Fold these 3 entries.
Entry 1:
Amino acid sequence: MMTAVETTTGTSARPRQFERRHDPRYSFTAAVEVVDGESGTTITARTSDFSRGGCYVDMFSPLPKDTVVKLRLTKWQETLETHAKVVYSSVGMGMGLMFGVLDATQREIVERWLTQICGTHAC
């Protein structure tokens, strides 16, 4: 199992951080509505990053790590609705969300958005 810090080999003994995400992130701004699964509180915000596996939501008071939410992203007159889990939370900055299991229709929306972001080349 890899640790959060991996030591490089060679002459340098400096540790380097490695990317833990499975999918590359892309700059992406979309309207977001997050509903806290426990309290039912609805929060509106915007994304700054997007990937096949999740997104980053900019907000001053993010929900705590491991909170399960209902997520609604709206972009290009299309809406992606799914459940997600907060995997990273930083007060004053925002939160990273990992999508739950996406059905075929939801996956198609994600792929269309990635095509829009990346143009003709594959993301």
Entry 2:
Amino acid sequence: MAMMNAADVVELLSRLEQHTIEVWLNGGWGVDALLGHQTREHEDLDITISAADRAAHTTAMEAAGFITYRVDSDFNWVVVDPRGRLVDVHLVDFSATTVNESGVSMYGPAGLPFEVGSLEGRGTVADKPVRCETAEFQVRGHTGYTPDETDYRDVLALCRTFDIEVPSVFEQLGFHQS
């Protein structure tokens, strides 16, 4: 598979914008967008789109030569183009909100469980302004599984830049701030 560079990100976001599809970055490029510069190589581009834009997204991506690579759930799948570029697509349902068992407002049932407000982040990729997950949501999102060294570096950079406390899970796993 090909690495996803900043020019690829800008190209793909511009293509989706031409089809009036709003996109939020998450994952590694979402971290780098918040930081305002690329910190590492990226194997894919993680994006979030509205469930209402699913058909338009499929049409736009198929026109660019993307085909389904892997389906993780009804609300999350990965597409790949002939150049080997991977895009990991996440759906969010803005049509309704619910309150979870912790009392947190979440976007509706026809998408992944994004907290209301979690997509208010703003950043840049190669000087292009982009929407993304907030730094706080990105940091919390890295605690829902066993993180690796790359996750730790991403979280540490966000915590230092946005004055967020480093989650204790990283210390428990033996990661220490340097």
Entry 3:
Amino acid sequence: MEINKKRPAFIKSKERVAHIQKKLDSARKSLAQAKKADAAHEQDIRELEDELAEVDRKRKEYEDMVAGESQSQGKDVHLEDAQVREILVT
């Protein structure tokens, strides 16, 4: 008789544990997905920073080349950023 009185509380506790376990599993999956997305974003950032460094290096090379040519011709040439980007793209 004592056991029959506590059975509903036991069942309710068991259901609550199952519910909390499902929430925990869902939260762990979400965390794994967020970590994966973060790693992908970090990789994208590193690649873009490398690209930017390469573009800056090429711009400096080009500016140095143009400055050397213009000095040899007695001219002083300075390009705006937009002009340099246009040259690098083509």
